[in-house]
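Here we describe the complex-level prediction in full. Unlike the single-chain runs in Section 2.1, the two entities below were treated as one system.
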Amino acid sequence: AQSVTQLDSQVPVFEEAPVELRCNYSSSVSVYLFWYVQYPNQGLQLLLKYLSGSTLVKGINGFEAEFNKSQTSFHLRKPSVHISDTAEYFCAVLTSGNTPLVFGKGTRLSVIA
Amino acid sequence: EAGVVQSPRYKIIEKKQPVAFWCNPISGHNTLYWYRQNLGQGPELLIRYENEEAVDDSQLPKDRFSAERLKGVDSTLKIQPAELGDSAVYLCASSFGLTNTEAFFGQGTRLTVV
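The structure predicted for the assembly as a whole is:
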């Protein structure tokens, strides 16, 4: 069965600094990978997804992620964060076939002015 | 286009009482999910429907939880009786097609059992 590990539960960063949120997955078959963002008291919103093709994926709000099959990673990056990026970020994996999304435990990004 | 709609947004009940949550998925989405999100955790699947059929309910505590999706559109998740440990956010999501490449989430129902 697939699983997702988000290595950092909390990441504080100063405004306009770069940030990387780490995600590693475990699966014996091909995967689709996702990053979702959850603002306080809200549902989950898709930031970006990797299905196939280019390993560098660009998403909304200036975020991007790179799929690395050899390292089984899908780290999320942003070159310059804003206060409004403060939220919980979830990495999720989906295997090919009729399976549901499996989520990591989340990383709380706190942007400090 | 309307997104996934859930109600209520918040619910506070005493333990041993019943509670129900309602979800209206995006129009045309045949797959519907109920996830539970405990505080500080990622969402965990409770049940997944393909149209009106429950295709994955292995994580649903069937002694107290039940769900239905009549006519393959709206869905209701029920807990009876509720326990203190059921306090969580219950998220509904929907997607189109069997490959399920992207799920759209509602805002969730925050349940507090006291």
